Amino acid sequence: MVAKNPWLVEANLIGGAWVGADDGATLAVVNPATGEGIGTVPSVGRAEVARAVAAADAAFPAWAAKTAAERAALMLKAVEVIRANAEDLAALLTLEQGKPLAEARGEIAGSAAYLQWFAEEARRVYGDTIPSPWADRRILVIKEPVGVVGAITPWNFPSSMIARKIGAALAAGCTAVVKPAELTPYSGLAWGLVFERAGIPAGVVNIVTGKPAPIGDEFIENPAVRKVTFTGSTAVGRQLAGRATTALKRISMELGGNAPFIVFDDADLDRAVAGAIASKFRNSGQTCVCTNRFFVQAGIYDAFAAAFAAAVAALKVGDGFEAGVVQGPLIDGRALAKVEGFVADATAKGGRVLTGGARHALGQTFFQPTVIADATAEMAFARDEIFGPVAPLFRFETEDEAVAAANSSEYGLAGYFYTRDLARAFRVAERLKFGQIGVNEGVITTEVAPFGGVKSSGFGREGSKYGLDDYLDVKYVCIGGV
Ligand SMILES: NC(=O)C1=CN([C@@H]2O[C@H](COP(=O)(O)OP(=O)(O)OC[C@H]3O[C@@H](n4cnc5c(N)ncnc54)[C@H](OP(=O)(O)O)[C@@H]3O)[C@@H](O)[C@H]2O)C=CC1
Ligand SMILES: O=C(O)CCCC(=O)O
């Protein structure tokens, strides 16, 4: 099955050619569900990345000069290619990432939706005219593509993270070099095949794989790269943002989260439990908008804890290709150790395991879906991103207390709360310091809405009409002698 996936390509795309590393170096890629090798990808150095940037730079004038409708038409062809091959692309995603096939299908559908959205938005990059303070001059504002984009993406959504960056870049008229995550490079490289089949010109999108430092360094230090867009950890994002800012490049940073999920006494219990499962356990908790901390009001705490723990205990864990599985493996041993560490820290400080709490009998990197009651602010997950299937339940008494605790994080990506009180819905949505808020909803990501955070979760927005702004420069034109 592995070798037969027609979208699995073991080369990089540079200037329209599929190539290996200059020195032949490769990286091995492993299926996290089985520990078996899938294949290899090139491990390129700065020279290959510099050639990819040069290819993107050379392709930029012609791509930017196309009308928006021409760019959109090519992007929509890519959407057709994805939809026609969704099953194979989803299988490739599950193979290297581990997520259940149903979730992989959802991600591929989401990738097509992002690309379609931005293809449609390409034709709506409006400028402005501004009333002039001078009788004989006119003031126009036009928008232009920023130029070559360097995109760095993570392993948790190896397809859709590329879609929402490259969709916006292509629509705006930018060209790009993409660096997918080392752990999940094949879904990234498959985008190269998609764009080729759609007829997007050589050099417009280039895809390189390898160790992160040389690729990141080239993106930052090569003057032809005008923008760096990154999704990943706050630690790496902070470092890249600092250096890219010094190099005076445009940057977008989608970084870590520590999402609160507040259940007020007046919540619809069944709805809150369903939302909690979806929000926490999607992708085995490896989503930056996954709930990290559940705050449950005292009056509903026991009922919520019991119903939630029962639902969590029923989640089927296994290989993502197996029917009925809703929890796949964690991405690697490091992630597994990190999750174990959170549980050990919590139980040592008085946390009560309601279900799960240990490695799964399946071995590999499987971890039992876990609920921990009696969580306190002293436990590590109160502060740090878990990125795994562990749900801590904190107890609170008042709305003020819940909002303060939710906002006490350095992160500000997504927050959720459940209430049937309309006034509270508005009030708490406004008081929570997060870029995205779900009210009575646990999963809110869509291509039509702005995705992004505040505080240490970064800046910039992806998806929606706002998603194009990050790829456009504003130019003021003053016409005199009128
Ligand atoms: N916001 C989000 O969506 C994500 C958050 N995270 C958080 O980060 C934690 C660690 O995950 P991890 O995969 O290590 O995240 P990283 O931030 O290390 O990886 C994200 C991307 O950045 C690349 N990268 C890493 N270091 C550099 C560098 N110096 N220069 C340029 N690019 C670099 C990675 O490359 P490579 O793959 O080659 O290392 C990958 O493509 C997770 O447990 C989670 O808490 C992780 C992923 C996504
Ligand atoms: O974890 C991320 O970085 C993206 C989440 C995408 C989604 O919510 O579907």
UniProtKB/TrEMBL annotation:
<dbReference type="InterPro" id="IPR050740">
    <property type="entry name" value="Aldehyde_DH_Superfamily"/>
</dbReference>
<keyword id="KW-0560">Oxidoreductase</keyword>
<keyword id="KW-0558">Oxidation</keyword>
<dbReference type="InterPro" id="IPR016161">
    <property type="entry name" value="Ald_DH/histidinol_DH"/>
</dbReference>
<feature type="domain" description="Aldehyde dehydrogenase">
    <location>
        <begin position="18"/>
        <end position="477"/>
    </location>
</feature>
<dbReference type="InterPro" id="IPR016163">
    <property type="entry name" value="Ald_DH_C"/>
</dbReference>
<keyword id="KW-0630">Potassium</keyword>
<dbReference type="GO" id="GO:0009450">
    <property type="term" value="P:gamma-aminobutyric acid catabolic process"/>
</dbReference>
<dbReference type="InterPro" id="IPR016162">
    <property type="entry name" value="Ald_DH_N"/>
</dbReference>
<dbReference type="GO" id="GO:0004777">
    <property type="term" value="F:succinate-semialdehyde dehydrogenase (NAD+) activity"/>
</dbReference>
<dbReference type="Pfam" id="PF00171">
    <property type="entry name" value="Aldedh"/>
</dbReference>
<feature type="active site">
    <location>
        <position position="254"/>
    </location>
</feature>
<dbReference type="InterPro" id="IPR029510">
    <property type="entry name" value="Ald_DH_CS_GLU"/>
</dbReference>
<protein>
    <submittedName>
        <fullName>NAD-dependent succinate-semialdehyde dehydrogenase</fullName>
    </submittedName>
</protein>
<dbReference type="InterPro" id="IPR015590">
    <property type="entry name" value="Aldehyde_DH_dom"/>
</dbReference>
<dbReference type="InterPro" id="IPR016160">
    <property type="entry name" value="Ald_DH_CS_CYS"/>
</dbReference>
<comment type="similarity">
    <text>Belongs to the aldehyde dehydrogenase family.</text>
</comment>
